[in-house]
Automatic annotation (TrEMBL):
Superkingdom of the source species: Bacteria
CDD domains: HTH_LacI, PBP1_LacI-like
HTH lacI-type domain location: 13-68
The protein's name: HTH lacI-type domain-containing protein
Amino acid sequence: MANEHEPAKPHRITISTVAAALGVAVSTVSNAYNRPDQLSADLRERVLAMAAELGYPGPNPVARSLRQQRAGAVGVLFAERLPYAFRDPAALMVLEGIASTLEQAKLGLLLVPGRDDDTTTVQQALVDGFIVYSMMDTDPLVEAALKRRLPTVLLDQPPRPDVPSIIVDDEAGARMATEHLLSLGHRHFAIITDRLIETHVRPSHAPINVQTQSEATFFVTQLRLQGYRQPLEQAGIAWSDVPIYDCNDNNEADGAAAIQILLARTPRPTAILCLTDRLALGAIAGAQQAGYNVPEQLSIVGFDDIPQATRITPALTTIRQDHRQKGLSAGQALIELLAGQSPTGYQRLAVELVVRDSTAAI
């Protein structure tokens, strides 16, 4: 026997409840939400008012998406854990560009972070397509996304046949940075990168040797290393003599730690090429903390031209890329795919050298 003091369980309000209260067909209530053009304005207003009065929340969005075979959202796969997307200025600008384009098409955005071997999130993501953003090409999440056979755009990824691809001219940018330092007379170089070799625990903080450079895990890293290497070798500098410090993550703290190790080497490098601006900003701070003057004793070049590059002293010489445009291009390409169109298969966005105060003649 039920306890007479127990509160009555609330009756579940459904679309049929609303239809019965109004004395109309269930299809009429459904049209008020899904096909408002099929009803008069007065009838639709009555349906919605009754639904609000009864507490009907509207059609189940999952069920509706299954009926329409559209989710109304796009999944963005990226290599980092979720908080990184909100901390890194470059990633934020790319995501802003993607979101701006998707918003115009009335599409939502679902972030699918990487660094996880569990592909369930990708396999079960309720999305209409994917943008794969700077992932390892061997990452199981990439393969899981491609196996869904949904419209997909590659961003900062190795090109694949029949998949639209958007990249930045990373190799050209790295070459510009290196040639700039060479023109200033520098001969002793070092490179600071992040996750050149993908391991969860670094065995040491020593710069890696040349043999491991071919194992670069990210397409962007590979291109930038090629861009650094070519002009150095053309200038007679052996690539094997260039120390490369591989940070665990792309942040200022790791850049500062890297420069401390590199400055203790003999011969001491006078020119530092950083794979990102965040690493470069950390390197400048770390060098100054160690008592070195930038650029009088040490020239440092970044890559990205994030807003913070102009706020540090000295202002950072860097390679500018248009992060927001990169995101806009990726979003537009995916929208075109969803509309049954054929976007440009391969886009390479230009970069430029921005000379500021962190580099000087030796």
